[in-house]
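The methods section describes the discrete structure representation at length, but only in general terms. What matters is that the chain and its backbone geometry are given together, residue for residue. For illustration, here is how one protein appears when written out as sequence plus structure tokens:
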Amino acid sequence: MDLIYRSTRNQKETATASQAILKGLADQGGLFVPDMIPRLDRSFDELSRMSYQQVAYEVMKLFLTDFTEEELKYCIDSAYDTKFDTSSIVELIPRDGAYILELFHGATIAFKDMALSILPYLLTTSARKNQVKNEIVILTATSGDTGKAALAGFADVPGTKIIVFYPKHGVSPIQEKQMITQRGENTYVIGIEGNFDDAQTGVKKMFSDPDLADQMDQAGFQFSSANSINIGRLVPQIVYYVYSYVSLLGRGDILPEEKINIVVPTGNFGNILAAYYAKCMGLPVDKLICASNENKVLFDFFGTGSYDRNRPFILTSSPSMDILISSNLERLIYQIAGRDSEKNKELMDHLTREGSYQITDDMREKLSDFYGNYASEEDTAKAIREMYQTCGYVLDTHTAVAVSVYKKYKEETGDDKVTVIASTASPYKFTRSVMNAIDPSYNDKTDFELVDELCRISGVKIPQAIEDIRSAPVLHHTVCETEDMCREVKKILGL
């Protein structure tokens, strides 16, 4: 029996998994969520003897129920192949009293590869299943990593175009170079004079514009999304939490059914929501530790029950987390509101109008799975420096936020459960911030001199993704104001 997906803002709007993947965003700005979170139907012992690809099938088959076994295994095997520089797809490394879950071994050296390697296959399969004739236009806002991973995944995929908006002054130099050098006849990259929230708001407006949808349909186009608002992004992210648990079990590092904690550096809330869904599927997880940077809107939310984006937007050394509107939090709000789409829509409308909302005491009681804290810029640099000095291991800035918050959690609680820390990017993506944290004297070197120096001190080979952009020509030059985003999309599509 197929699992039905519903909009968080309209209980009556339903879709199959493939329809939800195709559409990306529900009407009225809602997100698609499954009617129920399915339970794992294989034992942890069985899963512990499986490859990453096999675990992916066992998890994803429960959510993507209108895909045949052949279709889903084709998508999985096409995605998780030699694009990854480790045969295990992810690595789980014990360091300084925790396990670092390295999610950056894909083509663009960020965790977004874990889902965006498979999304093009899920999307094109969904289009065939639903007899879609239109060309699919992937419209995406990025805070740095989603953009490149989506561009790499969709470049020259037949029947698609991909348009990525990013904050011109809000990503690292390496992140920007990765995007603006992207090849592909169907790829378009546009910097905006604004921050990520501005880009994301502009994209959501276009998704919700019925007149634009009609114009596009008449011209043979339709939108879909590569952001984590697309359920086809979220489901593959559940896999690596299940895989990390059964890997620990297979190694003998935990006992059967032993609970672990999971720490996730969090901006848009999708990555930690995937860990929450894994827990709901029966994974023995105790605390979900939500690590924020100085844009600590989520820390304040977990502490007070009030979500308030009315605050200064801070540019930090962990730019992929420089977010004040955490879109995926809506899926959790819908869940703790008793899956009441009217109540959820009321809160989201208040966020749009006033920039804030307050959840009820009853809803707050349902957040006990989560712990929130944040790391200052000084905390982040300290975590990088201390990990390198202690272990010779180099963290990226986002993972350093998670490490710092985990230490605060342990000091507050004394909880010494086995803990997995999601490492969301390679330090090579943020070489200047990383190297300056280790030794401020590096500040006078160029970005690529720092790449070479990082290689020397870490002993970690320079990823191909970095070598590829050393001398790559800039192919995308467009920069626009936020109010001109729709005009740029129409220009690209000839509308």
